[in-house]
């Protein structure tokens, strides 16, 4: 992910500290742990030949990549659906390759809807998209709508109307990038409260060059975090530690579910960083978390 990317020499000067816990979250989290909280780690793809001998056993065939991926990870940020609307047959084919019933696909809304329609007159395309991803069945996780960086709060009515039109039996998250959504308290508070009313989550994107989008607000008792690392720079692990502390706090106060999608440049080092997260989160009472496998002879941890 290039969003928020900065020159490596600036990483040591960047303040990565997470913002203070918003008072808003007290109205969403019940204040006591959920009975069976779940944290699902994931990447942005499974189709990487260079993961053979790392995430995948040596000799793994490309047709088996998804099966092997789902043995290490419990979710995937499905960007493929951002570029094409897939029919039920194609979606069912992916689902059949997964041998882990707890796995969740988190498809991104097609850009034909999110970027090119202005979220207006998008009912037909949205219906086709949802009919396709419904073939995931129980493996369908939250669906996320990412609008472009030029999508300002002046278009709030289109955003809120579109979200209100979506099926209420599915979980949706939104990702907003224009700075005015977060720079102006009027805009941000209206956003958080409206999403809460609509039972829609708000993605938190932790990237070096855009600290404003690390808003830490939970309109629903679930979180979706896109953690953009910097090729295992030391700050990646310091940032992960801060996130682990916050996730523990949220879990203690009733967070039901979290999706942590690890991004790295060219996806190098995602397994190491995801393992770091898993090893430090496992042990929380009642928490379910899948730890990635590694077939490297020598690992960092």
Question: What's the short version?
Answer:
The chain is of the alpha/beta class and 301 residues long.
Element layout with pairings:
Layout: E1 38-43, H1 65-72, E2 75-78, H2 80-83, H3 88-97, E3 104-107, H4 111-114, H5 123-133, E4 143-146, H6 156-164, E5 172-175, H7 180-183, H8 185-197, E6 201-202, E7 204-206, E8 222-228, H9 234-252, E9 257-263, H10 270-281
Parallel strand pairs: 1-2, 1-9, 2-3, 4-5, 5-6, 7-8, 8-9
Summarize the structure in words.
This protein is of the alpha/beta class and 301 residues long. It has 10 helices and 9 strands. It has a 6-stranded parallel β-sheet. The protein has a 3-stranded parallel β-sheet with strand order 4-5-6, covered by helices on one side. Helix 9 packs parallel to helix 10. The model has no long low-confidence stretch (mean pLDDT 94).
Specify the biggest β-sheet. 6 strands, parallel
Report the C-alpha radius of gyration, rounded: 19 Å
> What's the total count of β strands?
9
**Oligomeric assembly:** single chain
Helix content: 25-40%
Helix-strand topology string: EHEHHEHHEHEHHEEEHEH
CA-based shape = globular
**Spatial order of the strands forming the largest sheet:** 3-2-1-9-8-7
User: What class, by secondary structure content?
Assistant: alpha/beta
Proportion in β-strands: 5-15%
Chain-averaged pLDDT: 94
